[in-house]
User: Which sequence fits this backbone?
């Protein structure tokens, strides 16, 4: 087993303060709807600040952080198609919505003194740099939180798929999917209180049980590239740090 694979399975490194951390580099996926908090649309500044504080705290521990944010709090391409929008144009509008959210998060981070850079999947001069792996890797190593906007730059691909792709490209140790629930359940826990939580589950088991974790394209990308996924509750303050330090936080999906 080579060093890279060995480290991927160990998920452990010691930071400069000699604290044990499970991951050195992460890809964090946030939903656009979560930024709206209790509102249906827009950006809740209190929620945004809370997220920024949690991310800054994690970056201070030496963890390299890449982030993808959805755009559903502003515009969702699929929903637009149902209302008569052309699907391609609707998805392009959704991509631009992710740029708005990315700028909001980068601004919130910078206001707290945390370095942040926005990268875009397509040219949008004066907003952010076009995503290239060398530029991103340099920024990560220099302590910047890197926010990847614009999805994949193509219609018909979700931000979950963009997250999986970016996680693989930046050689993240794990794909963290921040949701409203604290892990993967046998059923929707918000609708079925009897649903049971999985602390660990394989990609194949998720397929077999037809659990709705993310879209199939994103899920298959992670499975085929041995990219583990941890689903956790981003809205519980402190869980982002806990998921990095505690294997009992969230649900781990991996190739067993």
Assistant:
């Amino acid at each position: 087993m080579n060093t890279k694979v060995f480290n991927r399975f160990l998920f452990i490194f010691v930071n400069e303060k000699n604290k044990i951390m499970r991951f050195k580099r992460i890809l964090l996926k946030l939903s656009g709807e979560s930024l709206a908090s209790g509102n249906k649309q827009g950006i809740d500044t209190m929620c945004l600040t809370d997220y920024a504080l949690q991310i800054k705290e994690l970056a201070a521990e030496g963890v390299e952080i890449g982030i993808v944010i959805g755009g559903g709090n502003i515009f969702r391409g699929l929903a637009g198609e149902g209302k008569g929008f052309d699907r391609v144009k609707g998805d392009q509008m959704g991509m631009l919505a992710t740029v708005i959210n990315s700028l909001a998060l980068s601004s919130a981070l910078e206001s707290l003194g945390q370095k942040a850079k926005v990268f875009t999947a397509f040219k949008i001069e004066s907003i952010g740099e076009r995503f290239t792996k060398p530029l991103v890797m340099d920024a990560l190593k220099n302590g910047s939180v890197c926010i990847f906007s614009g999805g994949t730059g193509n219609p018909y691909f979700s931000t979950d798929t963009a997250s999986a792709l970016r996680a693989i490209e930046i050689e993240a140790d794990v794909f963290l999917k921040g949701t409203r629930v604290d892990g993967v359940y046998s059923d929707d826990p918000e609708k079925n209180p009897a649903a049971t939580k999985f602390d660990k589950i394989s990609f194949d088991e998720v397929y077999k049980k037809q659990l709705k974790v993310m879209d199939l394209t994103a899920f298959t990308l992670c499975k085929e590239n041995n990219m583990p996924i941890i689903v956790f509750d981003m809205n519980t303050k402190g869980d982002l740090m806990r998921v990095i330090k505690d294997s009992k936080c969230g649900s781990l999906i991996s190739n067993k």
Remarks:
- The first strand starts at residue 13 and ends at 14.
- The chain has a mean pLDDT of 90.
